[in-house]
């Protein structure tokens, strides 16, 4: 277990009447948790309307992804007045590995809480705050999320085998031990059409049309920069993963999302991004 947890706190002027007192109450139970206050609204010439309650662009959290990596978790206070801004800020965060965000809710209804969780919050606590529960939720959130540094270059052998199986990565020997916090990738059977022939994946079709060999790194080196190659790799993986998940679930989006450990709304957003129609995976009764 980590000796100390670094927790970022997004300080917003809209919560100045209750957030400081809340943290003062919570401090009694925050052993080994160090709070870092991020007052991004102070001393900056921000391009936002003066009549807005929060003087911070909705893309502020997403744009600070690199600087937030030095923390283990981030606290985001949310009240009924800042609910709209928080929804937009969470929706602006790109999908994929990101610092876990725990909300501190004040006067929110259950529908709003569920909506924020589906938009990406890792967990939340409600006022009035219980210091012991607050500390337990922070520790549990940090424990189930790997360090940000390990998310860029994963040494998980099961994940590497999964990428090799769908033809994205060449065969690489991984000798590291599998982290217990990361689940094994799903084991899918090759898809076949009515004639019994395997259905080619999106990656395989792309490689065949471009004359590339999936057993060589040429597929990754096709783009001009590391960033472009990484983006193309992620897109191909996501699209093929969605197709295989829908195949197993026979077109049931909710079932496929649960099996993928993703919220249904996030799963559906990826389907819309890659123009995937669930109807083609549904089996009609004969």
TrEMBL record:
Q: Where is the DNA binding HTH domain?
A: 234-274
Membrane-crossing ranges are none
A Pfam family annotated for this chain is HTH_8
For molecular function, the Gene Ontology terms on record are: sequence-specific DNA binding
| Organism domain of life | Bacteria
| Signal peptide span | none
Name listed for the protein in its UniProt record: Helix-turn-helix domain-containing protein
Q: Which organism is it from?
A: Zwartia hollandica
């Amino acid at each position: 277990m980590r000796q100390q947890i670094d927790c970022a706190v997004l300080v917003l002027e809209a919560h100045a009447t209750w957030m400081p007192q809340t943290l003062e109450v919570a401090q009694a139970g925050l052993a080994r948790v160090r709070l870092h206050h991020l007052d991004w609204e102070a001393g900056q010439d921000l391009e936002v309307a003066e009549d807005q309650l929060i003087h911070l662009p909705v893309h502020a959290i997403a744009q600070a992804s690199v600087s937030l990596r030095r923390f283990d978790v981030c606290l985001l206070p949310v009240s009924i007045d800042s609910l709209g801004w928080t929804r937009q800020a969470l929706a602006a965060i790109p999908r994929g590995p990101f610092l876990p965000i725990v909300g501190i809710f004040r006067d929110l209804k259950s529908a709003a809480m569920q909506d924020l969780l589906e938009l990406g919050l890792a967990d939340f606590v409600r006022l009035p705050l219980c210091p012991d529960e607050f500390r337990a939720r922070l520790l549990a959130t940090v424990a189930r999320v790997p360090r940000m540094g390990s998310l860029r270059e994963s040494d998980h052998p099961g994940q590497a085998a999964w990428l090799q199986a769908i033809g994205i990565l060449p065969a690489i020997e991984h000798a590291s031990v599998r982290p217990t916090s990361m689940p094994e990738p799903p084991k899918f059977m090759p898809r076949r059409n009515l004639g019994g022939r395997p259905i080619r994946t999106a990656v395989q079709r792309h490689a065949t049309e471009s004359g590339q060999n999936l057993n060589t790194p040429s597929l990754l080196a096709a783009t001009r920069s590391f960033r472009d190659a990484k983006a193309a790799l992620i897109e191909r993986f996501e699209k093929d993963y969605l197709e295989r998940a829908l195949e197993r679930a026979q077109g049931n989006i909710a079932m496929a999302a649960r099996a993928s450990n993703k919220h249904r709304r996030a799963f559906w957003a990826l389907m819309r991004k890659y123009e995937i129609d669930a109807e083609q995976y549904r089996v009609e009764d004969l």
